[in-house]
Design goal:
This protein is α+β, with helices and mostly antiparallel strands. It has six helices and 17 strands. The strands form four sheets. Strands 5, 6, 9, 10, 11, 12, 13, 14, 15 and 16 form a ten-stranded antiparallel β-sheet that branches. Strand 7 and strand 8 form a beta hairpin. The longest helix is centred in the N-terminal third of the chain and has 26 residues. It starts with 8 loop residues before the first helix and ends with a strand.
């Protein structure tokens, strides 16, 4: 049977975003139509890329010396690359498959939906049910990852249309805002990394894109909403996608350099300004996206999501 490349997280999440934005737009109409008083606009504040994790204390952890961010990133990349060489046997719908040994799950939450700087009860009630019907998490390799099958783990959205292999990490010390290491006293260490913030992150082309499964250029999603236009400025100016504050923690067996457990949380804030919807002009909306990966995925998740079983 011919192998078919899986859909990327990018295409799936962008479809979800399309629906969410439609809901936001409907909510904007309802909000303005039902609100008898104009609510004050939120004041804009200067963005600061804030450190959310403990910073590295130079020292030896689990027998490994970490004296700088460079040391942490070098070790992380080495372990990441080794783990992407490890495969295991599975069955998917009864067919034999060879996927990454370490597979993780994925979850997506949309939080803090605001219209004109205010919460909208109608939107808050609609979005969870919409997400539940649209987003079905699938097993993934360590991020960034486009697939659970190593032979298909590449992205199509590299510079100038090139393909980007995700079999190796391209993370650098310059990509990292903060990091730390913990000795778990059981032969493992835990490395936590917070990459620097990035506007409109692209896969493997910036700090966030070299660490998470980022959304890529989603301006096409916005352009495809025919009822939406902007009273002033461009899409890039009025549709701001800011990745900041997320981090990941990996637990590593220092004897084998195998990653035995990992949790990644990518945080994205989206602001829409000067939006025109039908008869409404110059309106604003915003939301937060929290995208998580946990490794290893449970047997139940593998079974329920894609009918996959470990051999």
């Amino acid at each position: 049977m011919a192998k078919v490349k899986q859909k990327s997280a990018l295409s799936t999440i962008n479809k979800i975003l399309f629906i969410i934005f439609i809901v936001l737009l409907i909510g904007t109409i309802l909000y303005v139509a039902l609100s008898s008083a104009k609510m004050p606009a939120k004041e804009e504040t200067e963005f600061v890329d804030e450190i959310k994790i403990e910073e590295l204390k130079p020292g030896t952890y689990g027998g490994v010396a970490f004296n700088s961010t460079e040391d942490v990133v070098k070790y992380y990349v080495e372990c990441f690359n080794y783990n992407k060489t490890l495969t295991a046997d599975y069955t998917e719908n009864g067919e034999a498959k060879k996927y990454y040994k370490l597979l993780g799950d994925e979850t997506l939450e949309v939080q803090n939906l605001l219209v004109e700087g205010q919460e909208n009860a109608t939107i808050n009630k609609l979005v969870p049910s919409i997400l539940g019907g649209l987003f079905k998490g699938a097993p993934k390799g360590l991020p960034p990852a486009a697939n659970r099958d190593p032979q298909y783990d590449e992205r199509d959205d590299g510079p100038n249309g090139t393909k980007i292999s995700q079999l190796e990490s391209h993370l650098t010390a310059d990509d990292v805002l903060a990091c730390n290491v913990v000795d778990n006293k059981d032969g493992t260490i835990s490395i936590t990394i917070q990459p620097k913030a990035q506007l409109l992150s692209m896969a493997d082309q910036d700090p966030q894109g070299r660490y998470f499964n980022v959304l890529g250029d989603i301006s096409g999603t916005v352009e495809s909403i025919s009822v939406l236009s902007f009273s002033e400025g461009t899409i890039e100016e009025n549709f701001v996608v800011n990745y900041a504050g997320g981090s990941g923690t990996v637990k590593i067996d220092t004897k084998t350099k195998e990653i035995v457990e990992a949790d990644y949380e990518m945080d994205v804030h989206i602001d829409v300004k000067h939006a025109n919807v039908a008869v409404l002009k110059n309106k604003s909306a915003s939301l937060d996206i929290v995208y998580k990966n946990h490794f290893p995925a449970s047997d139940q998740f593998l079974k329920d999501s894609r009918n996959i079983t470990r051999k």
